[in-house]
Automatic annotation (TrEMBL):
Gene Ontology process terms (BP): cellular detoxification of aldehyde
GO molecular function, one term: aminobutyraldehyde dehydrogenase (NAD+) activity
Reaction catalysis annotation: 3-aminopropanal + NAD(+) + H2O = beta-alanine + NADH + 2 H(+); 4-aminobutanal + NAD(+) + H2O = 4-aminobutanoate + NADH + 2 H(+)
Keywords: NAD, Sodium
Species, as recorded: Linum tenue
Domain of life: Eukaryota
Protein name (record): aminobutyraldehyde dehydrogenase
Lineage: Eukaryota, Viridiplantae, Streptophyta, Embryophyta, Tracheophyta
E.C. numbers: 1.2.1.19
Recorded family membership: Belongs to the aldehyde dehydrogenase family.
Domain Aldehyde dehydrogenase per the UniProt entry, residue ranges: 1-53
InterPro entries in alphabetical order: Ald_DH/histidinol_DH (IPR016161), Ald_DH_C (IPR016163), Aldehyde_DH_dom (IPR015590)
Pfam families documented for this protein: Aldedh
Amino acid sequence: MKFSTDEEAIKLANDSRYGLGCAVFSGSQRRAREIASKIHTGVAAVNDFASSYMCQAILSLVFT
């Protein structure tokens, strides 16, 4: 999804009916963490997406 400001991106994410996980990408680690902290989600990944999927896969193996 395209957005013009960080606030618009946060609003788009928080207005979604889904919210189990998100990934925030930025050249600034601090900025990405700040944005991720404002998104209502179960799991937030910063500058990465695969590690959260890997953790979910491991947990599903352990608890099934």
